């Protein structure tokens, strides 16, 4: 049923596969990755075996860790940070301290749900190795930050394959290289929208005053969502594939291969995801000088990027977002007198000028999710084999969907916008029913698309009469025109 395993297109990021798709108005960083933020370091480790389980069945261990260092000297120099909990069926250790102080002075490790304890210990083991005194003792304060999503469909969670040593190695090997994506790091065993999911990243550059510019970047561990909700640049690609899969299954009831794939998709994966709809962890980093409250606000904007891709915060989903700024270096682990208040000065962004950073953050999260799904490969896992998103089919569906919209756009449906919102497309005296529409294309669901040669009514005019039966409503025409602008038409 699913044809992704037969795709002739190699795994590639969304901008490489669909170079004309519009994913925001801000340019990406040179790597289009979290590591575009100066000083941020990342490593990913996939784990497919464990000496503790030499007799584990083949393909039963599929987990890993992603390690993020907000800066090289994270131990002594804290970053400002903020957290937003979109839905709380998950864990991010250390979040209470971040909410209390607005300070992050720990690596961020993202892993599977059953690896949290080992990852937590691993951060401590690294700190003890590096920062204990001559007698091997410690007198410092550290609360490790470890986040998780559940990889129990692809990974046998009874095999505790993540060890503290993996985290120590991850901290040691973290680099400024582009983040590896797809089936890597903590995302190794994750699913997203019933496709193979995993790790993804993206970045944006925002101009500041004079010659300054700032980077806003995202890293996600995507393990959430239903196929029917998955969208690419506004196109309902998941729903189209879902309906296509259903139709193929109904038309071929005697094909054992198709029936087996249908049972996997519509029974096993659906039941697994409905019971616990995965989760998503989002890390946003920037070098813009934001204080903790502003970073909480930035973290909230991850919700916008998630919703564009098809996430809406299901009850059993752990959707936890952390935003950090590397601009300020706040000394911790020092010998300051705890009873004598000490002044510190910091730079900060004026609240009234923060919009571009919010928008760029939302855009980066959306693209990071798409990159996670686009780069993930089909996997033979503990419970079943799960296909990657079929990139060949994506290209076909996107061309069909946006092809109709572009044709519609270029045949007269030019929306106009102002600061006050969409303007009226016709005077009150001209608001009469349109002439019979001319068919100009086919929508993604095979329904016809039309244009009118005369009146273009306002989307806001509630008194406008119903359009012809086979036509697009005035509101939909604005929506189609706006969607068409997500592709270069």
Describe the structure in your own words.
One of its GO terms (molecular function) is aminopeptidase activity. InterPro entries: ArgJ-like_dom_sf (IPR016117), Peptidase_S58_DmpA (IPR005321). It is a single chain. By secondary structure, this protein is an alpha+beta fold. It contains 11 helices and 18 strands. The chain has helices at residues 14-17, 95-101, 116-131, 164-173, 237-251, 256-275, 292-300, 302-309, 355-375, 391-410, 474-484, and strands spanning 41-47, 63-69, 77-88, 103-104, 108-112, 145-149, 191-192, 195-196, 198-207, 213-223, 279-286, 318-331, 379-380, 385-386, 417-418, 421-422, 438-442, 448-451. The strands form 6 sheets. The chain has a 6-stranded mixed sheet with strand order 4-3-12-11-10-9. It has a 4-stranded mixed sheet with strand order 1-2-5-6, covered by helices on one side. The protein has a two-stranded antiparallel sheet with strand order 7-8. A hairpin with a 2-residue loop joins strand 15 and strand 16 (421-422). Helix 3 (116-131) crosses helix 4, helix 8 crosses helix 9 and helix 10 crosses helix 11 (474-484). The radius of gyration is 25 Å and the shape is globular. The two termini are 32 Å apart. The model is unreliable at 1-5, 412-437 and 450-479 (pLDDT under 50).
């Amino acid at each position: 049923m699913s044809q992704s395993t037969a795709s002739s297109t190699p795994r590639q990021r969304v901008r490489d596969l669909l170079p004309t798709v519009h994913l925001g108005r801000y340019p990406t960083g040179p790597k289009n990755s979290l590591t575009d933020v100066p000083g941020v370091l990342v490593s990913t480790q996939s784990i497919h075996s464990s000496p503790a389980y030499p007799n584990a069945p083949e393909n039963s261990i599929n987990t890993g860790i992603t390690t993020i260092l907000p800066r090289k000297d994270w131990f002594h120099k804290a970053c400002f940070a903020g957290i937003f909990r979109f839905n709380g069926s998950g864990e991010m250790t250390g979040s209470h301290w971040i909410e209390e102080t607005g300070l992050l002075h720990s690596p961020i490790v993202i892993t599977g749900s059953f690896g949290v304890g080992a990852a937590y210990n691993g951060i401590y083991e690294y700190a003890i190795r590096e920062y204990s005194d001559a007698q091997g003792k410690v007198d410092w304060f550290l609360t490790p930050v470890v986040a998780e999503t559940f990889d129990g469909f692809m990974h046998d969670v009874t095999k505790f394959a993540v060890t503290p040593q993996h985290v120590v190695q991850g901290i040691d090997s973290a680099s400024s290289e582009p983040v590896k994506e797809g089936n890597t790091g903590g995302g190794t065993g994750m699913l997203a929208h019933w496709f193979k999911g995993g790790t993804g990243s993206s970045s944006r550059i925002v101009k500041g005053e004079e010659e300054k510019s700032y980077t806003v970047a995202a890293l996600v561990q995507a393990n959430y969502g239903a196929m029917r909700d998955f969208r690419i640049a506004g196109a309902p690609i998941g729903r189209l594939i879902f309906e296509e899969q259903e139709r193929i299954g109904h038309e071929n009831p005697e094909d054992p291969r198709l029936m087996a794939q249908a049972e996997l998709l519509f029974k096993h994966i659906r039941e697994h995801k409905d019971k616990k709809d995965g989760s998503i962890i989002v890390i946003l980093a920037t070098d813009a000088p934001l204080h903790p409250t502003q970073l909480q606000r930035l973290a909230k904007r991850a919700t916008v990027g998630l919703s564009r891709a098809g996430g809406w915060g299901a009850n059993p989903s752990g959707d936890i977002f952390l935003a950090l700024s590397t601009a300020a270096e706040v000394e911790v682990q020092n010998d300051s007198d705890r009873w004598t208040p000490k002044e510190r000065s910091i730079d900060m962004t004026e609240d009234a000028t923060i919009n571009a950073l919010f928008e760029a953050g939302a855009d980066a999260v959306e693209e990071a999710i798409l990159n996670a799904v686009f780069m993930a490969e089909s996997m033979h896992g503990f419970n079943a084999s799960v296909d990657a998103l079929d990139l060949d089919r994506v290209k076909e569906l996107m061309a069909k969907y946006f092809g109709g919209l572009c044709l519609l756009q270029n045949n007269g449906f030019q929306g106009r916008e102002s600061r006050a919102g969409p303007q009226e497309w016709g005077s009150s005296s001209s608001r009469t029913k349109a002439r019979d529409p001319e068919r100009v294309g086919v929508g993604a669901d095979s329904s016809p698309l039309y244009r009118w040669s005369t009146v273009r009514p306002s989307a806001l005019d509630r008194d406008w009469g119903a359009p012809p039966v086979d036509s697009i409503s005035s509101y939909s025409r604005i929506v189609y025109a706006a969607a068409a602008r997500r592709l270069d038409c």
